[in-house]
TrEMBL record:
Residues 12-47 have a biased composition (Low complexity). It holds the Pfam family adh_short. Belongs to the short-chain dehydrogenases/reductases (SDR) family. The lineage of its organism: Bacteria, Bacillati, Actinomycetota, Actinomycetes, Frankiales. Residues 1-49 are annotated as: Disordered. GO terms for molecular function: serine 3-dehydrogenase activity. Its EC number is 1.1.1.276. SUPFAM superfamilies: NAD(P)-binding Rossmann-fold domains. This is Serine 3-dehydrogenase. Keywords: Oxidoreductase. PROSITE patterns: ADH_SHORT (PS00061). Transmembrane segments: none annotated. It comes from Candidatus Protofrankia datiscae.
Length: 305
């Protein structure tokens, strides 16, 4: 018997007969596809982007915008049912509604352990968890000019650690039994080029993403022998709300990040995520570094006049 989550804020488990989609039958929002806990054989496996009824449940954190929303959409296109989580309930519900009946949403704050537990409640089997929630706050030097600035900066560092590092660990902890139960779990962590390189002003964010990358590698060692694949996707510049958040809603400053370049889109990253999780069960895509052509490193970007 598969057990998967009910609607939006309802955290009670909902049982579904084996072989069904896992959503409440007869509900207006029941998806048209069916899902199961096992990956089809390589011969039967459809190409990425091909709807397939057997892929199962994918959980995506930080799905109210950007890479998370695009990944949820792409995963549904590839045949998964999806459970979406983020803090902005209105945005999240709109994304889920736009994707259609294969998508469900629940509120989620990955910096809050109780919220992560409630988000995962009732999910006893799932194939994919995309740990995407996170982001950057500010672009300030490690040594701040004043004591007040240093205090504010420490608060931002704490949030970046909570969201990008501890948030990943909490999410994995909450879903690991369900991933193992599926027989072929896949954990995707969206780190960044900032998880492997540094740049001036990025100390808090690059430290957090380096730590997230270390957590990924540690999980790969600790889960060796379990039916779980650990996948890191490390993008360069992606045109999302990332910079708007980083610069406290300053749209002009955020837009300047992408001026004169052609950054990646959220859909580009979503395609990489979907490709990685749809390889045959014996193939573990360890890490994908995805750059725009206009970017050579975390700090080298080609800009046209
Ligand atoms: N854009 C880039 O250039 C880039 C490059 C490399 C890596 N990344 C990484 O990619 C991931 C997605 O970012 P994005 O570019 O798509 O930016 P985005 O559009 O700002 O999306 C960030 C998502 O994370 C969610 N989120 C933030 N804090 C959260 C929390 N505490 N709990 C739950 N959800 C939370 C946000 O939703 P709510 O605000 O509704 O909670 C939103 O859905 C992040 O981890 C980011 O660090 C981005």
């Amino acid at each position: 018997m598969a057990v998967v989550p009910a609607d939006a804020s309802d955290t009670a488990p909902v049982s579904a007969p084996a072989g069904s989609s896992g959503f409440p039958s007869g509900s207006a929002a029941s998806p048209a596809t069916e899902s199961s806990a096992t990956e089809p054989s390589a011969a039967a496996r459809p190409a990425v982007g091909t709807a397939d009824a057997r892929r199962g449940l994918a959980v995506v954190t930080g799905a109210s915008s950007g890479i998370g929303a695009a990944s949820a959409r792409a995963l549904v296109d590839a045949g998964f049912d999806v459970l979406l989580g983020a803090r902005r309930a209105d945005r999240l519900a709109a994304v889920a509604a736009d994707i259609g009946p294969a998508a469900r949403s629940r509120p989620l704050d990955v910096t809050d352990a109780a919220s992560v537990q409630a988000f995962a409640a009732g999910v006893t089997s799932c194939e994919v968890v995309v740990c995407n929630a996170g982001g950057a706050l500010g672009l300030a030097p490690v040594v701040a000019a004043t004591a007040a600035a240093a205090e504010a900066e420490e608060e931002r560092w704490r949030w970046m650690w909570e969201a990008n590092v501890a948030g990943v660990a909490r999410t994995v902890r909450a879903f690991l039994p369900a991933l193992v139960a599926s027989g072929d779990g896949r954990i995707v962590v969206i780190t960044s080029v900032a998880g492997h390189q540094v740049y001036p002003g990025g100390g808090g964010y690059t430290a957090a993403k380096h730590a997230a990358a270390a957590v990924v590698q540690t999980l790969r060692l600790e889960l060796l022998g379990q039916p779980v694949r650990i996948i890191e996707v490390a993008p360069g510049m992606v045109d999302t709300e990332f910079s708007l958040v980083r610069f406290d809603g300053d749209a002009e400053r955020a837009a300047a990040v992408y001026t004169g370049t052609v950054p990646l889109t959220a859909a580009d990253v979503a395609e990489a995520v979907t490709w990685a999780v749809t390889r045959p069960p014996h193939v573990a895509v360890a890490r994908i570094d995805l750059f725009p052509r206009d970017q050579a490193s975390a700090r080298d970007v080609h800009r046209r006049p």
